[in-house]
Structure formats: C-alpha cells, structure tokens
Description:
The protein is an alpha+beta fold. It has helices spanning 2-12, 71-83, 170-186; strands at 24-35, 38-46, 57-58, 61-63, 91-95, 99-100, 105-113, 127-134, 144-150, 155-163, 166-168. The strands form two sheets. Strands 1, 2, 3, 4, 5, 6, 7 and 8 form an eight-stranded mixed β-sheet that branches. The chain has a three-stranded antiparallel β-sheet with strand order 9-10-11, with helices on one face.
Amino acid sequence: MPFKQLAQFFSAYQARAKNPADKVRAAVLCPLFIENDCIRILFIKRSQMVRAHRGEISFPGGVKESKDPSLVQTCLRETEEEIGIRPAEITLLGALDEVNTTTGFLISPYVGIIPPPHRLTLSRNEVESVIIAPVQDFYKPENLIEFYFFNGRGLQAMTAYRHRDQVIWGATAKVLSRLLELGREHGLFTAAPKSSFHLAS
Length: 201
C-alpha cells in the first residue's frame, strides 16, 4: 500500500537540517489522503489579511511560538487553527528537508496522513481557500515551470508548479519538489488501493 511505503520510508529518512542562524523558525504540514483511489495533497491559499505572502499557495503551518514545545507541535497547532484538522486526526510520518526562504524563515516540513477533508473549518483571517490535487499531477511536464528569479544578488534557478489557474512557487514549491523527488526515487506514490488505509492495519 502506498502509505505503508511512505511510513516505512520516513521512519528511516534523515531530514537535512540547515543552520538556523538568524532565521525565524516555522513548520508546515504536507497533508496527504486517499480519495477516489488517488493519493491527493492539500494546500491552502493564504488570505489577503495575513502579514506575509498574501494570496500565495502554501502548506498549512506557521511560525513557532514560545508555547510550542517543538516544531512538530507548531505544525499540528497551526494546521488545526488554519483548517480545523485536529492533531488526533493526523498521522505524522516524518520530516522533509528544511527549507530557507528569502524572507528570513527556516521551515521544517512534516509529511502526514489526514482523513479526506470533507468538512474543513477555515480560519478566514488566514486562509482564503484550500486547493486539493492528485500528487501524480505534479509529475506531468505541463505542470512544471522552470524560471530564474532575481534574489537581490543575482539570478537563481527556480521551480514552480501549476495547478489549474494557480501557481505554487517559493518555499512551498521547494518542499513539494523534494517530496516528489523522493517519491520518484523510491516509488512512494504508486496507484492507490481500492480500500481505505490505516497504519494500524
């Protein structure tokens, strides 16, 4: 089963850490679920009321607060606050490589399984809408965008992804790109099973 492969892979995977230096620590969840025999991934579209990255596509998550005992707890707390999925409903599989942003954040991404999100409670101050796509769609060449971005010092090669009329770029695209790369290298995203999946099964 695909999620068993993912669970086995991330139980052994050592995520690459970066030097936090003067970066603001943050954590996000890469939420996966099976629906209609397909592994899907969920993103949020940020509202126009947030301070940073307005209107951009991202994963649920945010900045680590002093009350958070760990970055994992940051990831779970922010996911519940933004889209209403409780920590008890999330099966965390493991961490992906940390990602620096050009705006001073160091993001720790976590991959997790969620139930099909039929009834989400969105924080309208932070989230305009959710975007759900089959993981396999991002392997299609027509959904890949490669370009150069001027970072203030020089041109930097970047990768972005297209989903319908939305573009996923920046740190979110970096996280997604690494997930897709690992999926391709290790066969993590094969055809979904017909029946529902539970890690305890």
